[in-house]
Amino acid sequence: MGSAEDLEYLQMLIQYQNGFLISKVMFAACELGVFDLLSKSEKTLSTKAIAEQLGTSLQGMERLLDACVGLKLLIIEVKNGEVFYGNTEISHLCLTKASPKSQYHNLMYYSKTIYPCWHYLTDAVREGKNQSERAFGVSSNDIFEALYRSEEEMIKFMSGLNAIWSICGKDVIAAFDLAPFTMIYDLGGGAGALAQECVSLYPNCTVTIFDLPKVVQTAKKHFVSSEESRITFHEGDFFKDSIPEADLYILARILHDWTDEKCVQLLTKVQKACKMGGGVLLVETLLNEDKSGPLESQLYSLNMLVQTEGKERTSTEYSALLAAAGFMEIKIKKTGKLYDAILGRK
User: Are 279 and 327 in contact, with CB atoms under 8 Å apart?
Assistant: First the structure.
């Protein structure tokens, strides 16, 4: 192996080992309010001005800002020998709280919930189970206890999902023509972003969000307007409680939380409740058939290990789960974005 290859390998490894440093720079800048401050100021600001307004040390803020410049999250201007900072387009669009495309809450969820779990990845691999007990002191048997450990954390998680669906939601809802399905149940629909996409794209449909009572109450309080008559709620646990009849059931990022056995159990309940000619729409990130990628899906699958009981799957694996539950005419649509769509019919 020549010196050129040695250097290339070393650079690749350095890039990999610095991955979590990059994440923490972005998390810290969001949490401290750097991007929001620069957005509100409508002009570039000096390190001193930013540090004073955000209540941080001068030297710490200077290094954080410079790292953000290196990550192309901030721009710099030099005026009379002094450096001033401003947001780049990606920061203005995705990292400020006020932006319609903001990913702020999703990043805070990663920082406060996912990151602590990944500290115990080695333990998760050894044991084959989630690390909620080590990370948060809550039972590993209830996978949502860590996510919903406080109203603040619940809102953070639900806001993060809404942020993702604000970018990817329309693609998965439009992947198939859902117009024939006028009565829709969104199982685990949370804050209602996909339900909103449904009623926007298919104005003749109604969507009922079926979720845990505390999730429903939070959604009503913080996310879904009571004036939206086409979206209603149903409180319950879809594993324990009966599932009402409907034309279509949406399970978006639900099955990846659970084992194959529980997935078939849930899908069988859905199939029995479903009207004849109706269907189920799965929204998931799909692994290649040989599990060689995409990298995002492979990482998400590891995240399911540290956080849940489930895993990411291939389209063939999801099709097998649907078939085992009695669904037929299974179709798969790749959206070209983070999440894909699978439709099964009764």
Answer: yes
| Burial track 293-306 (b if 16+ CB lie within 10 A, e otherwise) | eeeebbebbebbbb
From first to last of its 346 residues, the chain has per-residue pLDDT tens of 567 888 899 999 999 999 999 999 999 999 999 999 999 998 999 999 999 999 999 999 999 999 999 999 999 999 999 999 999 999 999 999 999 999 999 999 999 999 999 999 999 999 999 999 999 998 878 878 777 888 888 888 899 888 889 889 999 999 999 999 999 999 999 999 999 999 999 999 999 999 999 999 999 999 998 888 999 999 999 999 999 999 999 999 999 999 999 999 999 999 999 999 999 999 999 999 999 999 999 999 999 999 999 999 999 999 999 999 999 999 999 999 889 999 999 9
| Cα angle: 192, vertex 259, 297; to 5 degrees | 65
Tell me how far apart the alpha carbons of residues 205 and 196 are, in angstroms, rounded to a whole number.
Answer: 11
Q: Which residues are catalytic?
A: 256
CA angle 143, 25, 23 (to 5 degrees): 40
Prior bond of 180 cis (ω within 30°)? no
Looking only at the bridges linking them, the beta strands covering 246-252 and 183-187 are parallel
Look at residue 203 and give its three-state secondary structure. Answer: coil
* Model pTM score: 0.92
The candidate with the shortest Cα–Cα distance to 164, out of 184, 146, 188, 191, is 191
Gap between the Cα atoms of 176 and 198, Å rounded: 12
